[in-house]
Amino acid sequence: MQVNWELFWPRIIEATWDTVAMVSFSLLFATLIGLPLGIIVVVTRKGHLLENKAVFSVLSSIINVFRSIPFIILMVAIIPFTRLVVGTSIGTAAAVVPLVVFAAPYIARLVESSLLEVEPGVIEAAESMGAGPWQIIFGILIPEALSTLVLNITIATIGLVGASAMAGAVGGGGLGDLAIAYGYQRFETSVMIVTVIILVVMVQGLQTAGNTLSKIIRRR
Questions:
Q1: Rounded CA gap, 87 and 84, in Å?
Q2: Nearest 5°: CA angle at 157, between 37 and 215?
Q3: Residue 59's pLDDT band (cuts 50, 70, 90)
Q4: Burial of 197 by CB count in 10 Å (0-12 exposed, 13-18 middle, 19+ buried)?
Q5: 141-167 burial, b for 16+ CB within 10 Å, e for fewer?
Q6: Structurally, how many domains does the chain consist of?
Q7: What is the pTM of this model?
Q8: Which of the four pLDDT bands, split at 50, 70 and 90, describes residue 199?
Q9: Where are the transmembrane segments (predicted)?
Q10: What is the predicted pLDDT for the residue at 171?
Q11: CATH code, domain carrying 76
């Protein structure tokens, strides 16, 4: 069946904005959760600033559990929680909840990886000068790792774009929903191709922006 593109383009634009909204809100909330989680996992590990074996073990285990669950399964498994938070399990707003639960532990691990790249000698020098743990965390640890953090958050954002497309399989809205409803179920291949192209352009733009920002920070 021939697609009436004059009528269909508004749907594509709307679906694109839905995807942008899903990814933006999910990234915001996932970062607000994942960033402090990643910092705590780093500073409470053995030999670090606020060593605490119990806290490190519990948080690390929780992060590992959620990271091991495939997104499509996680999205279905937490439907009751999603309904509790936003009142529905279908649509763009509902997709944000599982996206946050999916991305937060992933971002926590990426933050942990970035912070662990900071040279121990820098931390030791700050301690020898009398800096406290929180001064070191916010004055040295995070600024020193900022360039790598930007790159890792970019990776997480791209992962969210892919996950938001998968959310369309269960009525999550956005480009994924459009591709499945028209490209797959109605065999309109041209619609599928357009949605894929938009997603590829989106990912390329995000990666380029992340790389550029990281380089600017590194030069400073």
A1: 6
A2: 95
A3: very high
A4: exposed
A5: bbebbbbbbbbbbbebbbbbbebbbbb
A6: 1
A7: 0.87
A8: confident
A9: 20-43, 55-79, 85-108, 190-210
A10: 66
A11: 1.10.3720.10
